[in-house]
Design brief:
This protein is mainly beta. It contains nine helices and 49 strands. The strands form nine sheets. The protein has a 22-stranded antiparallel barrel. Mean pLDDT is 87; it is low at 1-45.
């Protein structure tokens, strides 16, 4: 069989690249000039020097660029790159478990709109996360938690487009570069050790870094080699409360109605009779004890869900937490990063670089919950909410259900163990060669591969069914309620783990998942620059990229627990959560509770064997989640760099256009007629993206910059799945859309910068993004049979839609909430950006060693969201929308750093603030318009002292105010969806350099 040129083995491709590099070197030696070339050295000796280096890079740029250099990164109290970047104007953090910076938003645009390049090619990193924080990041948004900041030499945030820069970003292009040997004067060896401690985890945690670099002059030219490594272990603990969701009182078949109430809930029928339902009881051993007056108050509250329901249902306006519960999450991280770089300069004007990078981010997360499951259970699924009686209920003036006391509540202690590992590998070969005095060519070929492996995700629940006297109480604390469980939750014997009773009463369950996601990116690019004159340079280039995203996941689970063997009790498979609630501020929060001990349970029943010996442990291989998205992106550009003096003003910049062809092929396996069949869809589109960057250099070091361009951001990989899935528990249907168009926008920037003295700058800028389209999740209520989807999707879970047992929770005539992604109208985004870098050199004595870094960003956006495709109560095809901010956009953000720096001592304190932002647009389909995240301010500090010229000691503190993370549901009620805190962290370290 013949090999196609594009399908050559990797060894042949690498050999071809090596020959190309050798050819460039040979050409360079033939033209070698006799004069010695000064070394290209970047010398950074302190915090001030790094600020000066970064400022010079910003000053010489054509577009809007912000830079962080060398020790500016390594010496700041940054757990990872995201926390380094938060000091850039317009950059805010999205924090993950343990409060560590995970992703960034730039000028209000979330992580999916920001492209990250490492050593010149796009990088991607995926990690796991808790369920309420998205479960796992498998999208385009770069997860900075994978990498230690010490591995990188410079960070650049490019906020404007340029024809030569790869498209794909609406927010910014972040360029990360690892260290190279020619960045240093000569041999450099550096080692660092740190030990950290956190006030919640109360655990010490090590961090090690090292770098070895050297360069040599040889008869073959200048040669250099560098290796750096970073290793850290960390235990992050979060404690708090979460509601999981908020449901109206009538959801999941409603609450148990009082004696004699009409309509009776649950109803007396043949199916419910087997569960013990009659006029006096809501189930076996569950009498109707609802207080008629309190029940009537709850049911009198109604909501038409924004007009989607013509006749509001009783109780539709009373929103209770779906699973009110306390949570402790413990995550043990292990982060390893290695970089190596080899440089060869065979002659002046010729450079060949090979950059290699490896990263591994291993995590084991333990989540423990103690909560009430009844409010999120239907009668058919698990004898839940319709067996729960309302004894007392109070609501505040905003309509929030602030207090409730209940009988017949199922209490649950739940444990989840999630093991996941991210591996990142990258190799980039780049070369540049100057031909004569006016022509320069450069070449780049690189590959990166990210793998997220989640081999174990085991969830186990112990239940205490039909408990009386349970209550939730938000009256004293809106964030962390008092939960009275009605039983001794510290006693393991209060709970059960056993098979489900014939009447449907649950006594625990377990389920799990295996997941693997891969993303492979390959880039080949070549560029040519011709200096037509001292004032004009013409540039052109082409590139070919291939991105392949693949996902596989498969689940398992029991329809109930397992009967424990004789002689094995709940004490034998449980442990105690102790010392809970320090710093939460809630009253009545339990200090301890009985929790699942997975290791002890596995010794009794190996539910992770995935074998027939343990019922429910086998993976459901009949319905795996298999998706593959392949993008082929070919681009060509042409542009001109110019530099002229007119009217006493220096004018420079660039103008050009980039043409891009994109072909996205989406494939998923879907079960049709009992068989897994591939469904494939191909989407093609072409874009022409002009870009202009103009800088006017005015007298007194004042720079005026203007930029304009067209850009795009491609859909998330997961949204392109040509598939449909049904969630039986929540009665929802999710439909993918492989025909999504990218988000396109026109962008404009105007910024003035004044470099009023050395190492000082003040700037003010305005930016506007005219977003022509947006990708949004739209929810609507439809009867399942009207969707045109096969009924096999309903029975895949092993349930019946024809009267068998167990019955499916979603039947063909069930009204479900349908989630679809659509291209919707966009809207404008306008913002102001202020930046100040001010050394206090005007002060006498040691005062001149102080300085200030400050920036402020104000953004306003008007995105036209589709709230619903139509309103059944009004004329057909009516557009129903809402105008609001971008999801993830904080209208206000600021960062302030006060620093002191002299040759021996350096100190900094920094505050980073972002205002409240929208996490999700819900469209009022279930009575909630938005989920919002509260604003936050994080305060950090760093102190270092050079004990000798080679030895530096440091002490750092992070999140000094123990800032909590809070999600609120609905603009009017602002019900607490999540409230967690992760504590203060302190790090003591030493670094030796020789």
């Amino acid at each position: 069989m013949q090999n196609h040129p594009n399908n050559r083995p990797a060894g042949i491709r690498l050999t071809t690249l090596a020959l190309a590099a050798a050819a460039l070197a040979s050409s360079a030696q033939a033209q070698q000039a006799p004069a010695a070339e000064p070394a290209n050295v970047v010398t950074v000796t302190g915090f001030r020097a790094s600020l000066d280096s970064a400022l010079n890079a910003k000053k010489s740029s054509d577009g809007i660029l912000d830079v962080i250099k060398a020790e500016d990164i390594a010496k700041f109290p940054d757990a990872n790159l995201a926390e380094s970047l938060q000091r850039v104007p317009g950059v805010s953090l999205a924090r993950g478990e343990g409060g560590e910076g995970r992703q960034i938003t730039v000028r209000g645009l979330n992580a999916g709109f920001t492209r990250v390049r490492i050593n010149g090619i796009e990088g991607m990193s995926m990690t796991g996360a808790s369920d309420i924080n998205g479960n796992s990041n498998r999208g385009r948004g770069f997860d900075f938690s994978v990498f230690a900041s010490e591995l990188f030499n410079s960070l650049e945030v490019r906020k404007t487009s340029e024809a030569a820069i790869e498209e794909g970003s609406l927010g910014a292009t972040v360029d990360l570069r690892t260290g190279r040997p020619f960045d240093f004067k000569g041999r450099t060896i550096s080692f660092g050790v740190q030990e950290g401690w956190n006030s919640v985890s109360r655990k010490t945690q090590p961090r090690l870094t090292g770098l070895v670099s050297d360069r040599w002059d040889t008869r073959f030219g200048k040669v250099g080699a560098l290796v750096s490594a970073a290793y850290s272990k960390r235990r992050a603990v979060e404690e708090g409360y979460e509601a999981v969701d908020l449901y109206p009182a009538h959801f999941d078949d409603g609450f148990c109605s009082p004696l004699g109430a009409a309509p009776q809930v649950p109803a007396s029928n043949a199916a419910n009779a087997a569960k013990g339902v009659d006029a006096a009881n809501c189930g076996f051993g569950v009498p109707r004890t609802s207080n008629p007056a309190e029940y009537a108050e709850v049911m009198a509250r109604t909501d038409n869900f924004g007009g989607t329901v013509a006749s509001p249902v009783p109780g539709s306006g009373a929103f209770a937490p779906r699973i009110p519960r306390y949570r402790r999450s413990q995550t043990d991280y292990e982060r390893t990063g290695i970089t190596s770089s080899f440089q060869w300069r065979p002659a002046p004007g010729t450079d060949i670089n090979l950059d290699l990078m490896y990263g591994k981010f291993s995590n084991t997360r333990y989540d423990n919950y103690i909560g009430a499951i009844s409010f999120g259970r239907s009668m058919a699924a698990a004898n839940g909410k319709p067996q729960t009686s309302i004894l007392e209920a109070e609501f505040d003036g905003n309509g929030s259900w602030t207090y409730g006391r209940f009988n017949g509540v199922d209490i649950r202690t739940e444990g989840l163990m999630d093991v996941y590992e991210t591996k990142f590998r990258q190799n980039v070969l780049s070369a540049s060669h100057r031909i004569g005095d006016t022509l320069k060519v450069d070449f780049l070929h690189g590959m990166s591969n990210t793998n997220l492996d989640n081999p174990m995700r085991a969830t186990v629940m112990f239940d205490a069914p039909n408990v009386n006297g349970y209550s939730f109480d938000f009256r004293q604390n809106r964030n962390v309620p008092t939960l009275n469980y009605g039983i001794d939750v510290a006693n393991p014997n209060s709970f059960t783990f056993a098979n489900t009773e014939p009447n449907g009463t649950w006594h625990g369950q377990f389920f799990g998942r295996y997941l693997q996601s891969d993303n492979k990116l390959k880039t080949t690019a070549a560029n040519l620059a011709w200096e037509a004159s001292d004032r004009l340079t013409l540039r052109t280039g082409l590139s070919a990229r291939k991105n392949t995203w693949a996902n596989y996941d498969v689940g398992n689970g029991s329809t109930g627990g397992l009967n424990l063997p004789a002689g094995v009790g709940m004490n034998d498979i449980s442990r105690q959560i102790a010392g809970f609630g320090r710093g939460l501020g809630g009253t009545g929060v339990p200090n301890t509770w009985a929790a699942v001990d997975l290791s002890r349970l596995l010794a009794v029943y190996n539910i992770e064997c995935h074998c027939a010996d343990i019922p429910g442990s086998e993976f459901n291989l009949a319905t795996p989640g298999v998706t593959r998205i392949e993008e082929k992106i070919d681009a060509v550009y042409g542009m001109v760099d110019f530099n002229y003096d007119l009217w006493g003003i220096g004018w420079r910049g660039n103008a050009g256009v980039r043409g891009v062809d994109t072909q996205a092929t989406s494939m998923t396996l879907q079960r049709i007629a009992g068989q897994l069949q591939p469904i494939t869809f191909t989407k093609k589109y072409r874009d022409w993206l002009p870009a202009l960057n103009l800088t006017a250099q005015l007298p007194k070091d004042v720079y005026l910059r203007f930029s304009a361009g067209k850009t795009l951001s491609r859909p998330e990989y997961g949204d392109l799945r040509p598939s449909a899935s049904v969630n039986q528990q929540f009665q929802t249907v999710t439909v993918g859309n492989a025909n999504l168009d990218p988000i396109r926008a026109r962008t404009y920037d105007l910024q003035a910068e004044w470099y009023y003295e050395k190492n000082a700058m003040v700037s003010l800028g305005f930016f506007r993004k005219e977003i022509k389209s947006f990708i949004q999740n739209v929810q609507q209520r439809e009867v399942y049979s009207s969707l045109g989807l096969p009924n096999e999707l309903l029975t895949d879970a092993g349930c019946s839609i024809t009267g068998g047992t167990p019955a499916c929770n979603v039947l063909p005539d069930t009204t479900v909430v349908v989630n679809r992604k659509f291209n919707t109208p966009g809207g404008p985004l306008n913002g102001l950006e202020f930046n100040l870098q001010a050394p206090f050199s005007f002060l006498p004595g040691i005062g001149k060693n102080f300085g200030l870094l400050a920036n402020y960003t104000r953004v306003k956006s008007e995105i036209n969201y589709i709230v619903r495709p139509d309103n059944p109560a009004t004329p057909a095809n009516e557009f129903i929308g809402d105008t609001a901010d971008f999801t993830g956009l904080s209208p206000r953000a600021h960062n302030i750093t006060l620093f002191y720096d002299d040759p021996k001592f350096s100190a900094r304190v920094s505050a980073a603030h972002r205002s409240s932002y929208i996490l999700a647009v819900l469209g009022d389909i279930n009575g909630h318009d938005y989920t919002r995240v509260n604003g936050s301010t994080n305060i950090d500090f760093s102190v270092s002292y050079n004990l000798t010229p080679n030895l530096r000691l440091s002490f750092e503190g992070q999140n000094l105010t123990d800032e909590a993370l809070r999600y609120g549901r609905d603009s009017q009620r602002n019900d607490t969806l999540l409230y967690v805190h992760s504590g203060r962290s302190f790090v003591l370290g030493a670094n030796y350099k020789f």
